[in-house]
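Worked example (supplementary).
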Amino acid sequence: GNSVTQMEGPVTLSEEAFLTINCTYTATGYPSLFWYVQYPGEGLQLLLKATKADDKGSNKGFEATYRKETTSFHLEKGSVQVSDSAVYFCALSSLSGTYKYIFGTGTRLKVLA
Amino acid sequence: EPEVTQTPSHQVTQMGQEVILRCVPISNHLYFYWYRQILGQKVEFLVSFYNNEISEKSEIFDDQFSVERPDGSNFTLKIRSTKLEDSAMYFCASSAEGGNSYNEQFFGPGTRLTVL
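After joint prediction of all chains, the assembly is encoded as:
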């Protein structure tokens, strides 16, 4: 069945450091891929998405590229800020039924000033 | 900006009691979902709802669970007789269209359920 694997957290970085959060998936076909972010006390917010192979999603300085050959969708940001501290979830949308999401476990990012 | 809201933010209940978790989806959305996240584990799909009926449910969603859209705005998740293992964060989500995998789901802030 479909699944998403995310790197374990927490990840602690200094401000302006480079961020990578790894995400790989297992799916039949080519699902859409998403990164959601959850700030403390808030809901899950869509950060970026990609709907087909080689698509690059980007938002707020974050990027992720849909890599079919490695079944990956790694999240990157060149220079993190304290305000990026949150939990990041990788997810895929299943290709049948009601297109429910399948999530990874989430990765907590803490950025220190 | 429209948002999905959930109440209460935190619910504490005794094992065996019934709980109802409430959600108000975005007003023009047609597809509704419940997910849950047990502490430290993955966010898991529970159920999807469209046109006033369940369209898909997971193995977790057994006879103890039910969903309802009682008044055209609220979307509720009821657990008839809670168990300790039901303790989790429950997320409600809605989307404008569910007919393709591109569609974005909008999530609420979650209700933390603690079963004692």
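Two points are worth noting when inspecting this output. Chain B has a mean pLDDT of 91. The interface with chain A takes residues 3-4, 6, 31, 33, 35, 37, 40-45, 48, 50, 55-56, 91, 93, 98-110 of chain B (CB under 8 Å).
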